[in-house]
Amino acid sequence: xxxxxIFYGSSSGVTGKVAEKLAGLLGEERCDLYNMEEDFxxxxxxxxYDHLLFGCxxxxxxxxxxxxxxxxxxxDNEKPDFSGKTIALFGAGDYVSHGEQFVSALGVLYDKFxxxxxxxxxxxxxxxxxxEYSFAVRDGKFVGLPFDKINEADKTxxxxxxxxxxxxxxxxxx
Length: 174
Description:
Elements: E1 4-8, H1 14-26, E2 31-35, H2 43-47, E3 51-55, E4 58-59, E5 63-64, H3 66-78, E6 86-92, H4 104-114, E7 119-121, E8 124-125, E9 137-138, E10 141-142, E11 145-147, H5 153-170
Parallel strand pairs: 1-2, 1-3, 3-6, 6-7, 6-11
Antiparallel strand pairs: 4-5, 8-10, 9-10
Helix pairs in contact: 1-5
Keywords: Electron transport, Flavoprotein, FMN, Transport
InterPro entries: Flavodoxin, Flavodoxin/NO_synth, Flavodoxin_CS, Flavodoxin_lc, Flavoprotein-like_sf
Protein name: Flavodoxin
């Protein structure tokens, strides 16, 4: 059974709670959770997994959550090779207060890790979401799973279950 590394940044705890739910849905026995603020040491932590989930909320004008900033700077400087790694992204946004950059941080992560050779999976339909713009939309879909626990908390669990079904097909071998 392949191991899954779930790395997340979570200022208010929302993304952390979703990371824990994902581990439960995917099977806690196969998932290792890493809080980027407390547990991330270097990219070797990530590179030991074939399958990775990265969770990041969007702040300000489309920026990644604080716990991801330094690692992304290191990623640019160290240029580790993520070839052969499969990554899926998830992240929190607020379409009412930040609809002009809804979950755009996922687009930042997508570009950074794709440039390092990773295969990114787990795109999610934009249907049912309200927002003005998102840097996380490519080819008409989000590059990962967006959720809005502030304005659409009632939709999060159903979206998580749908996304895990996608991951089980694309991301996790039977």
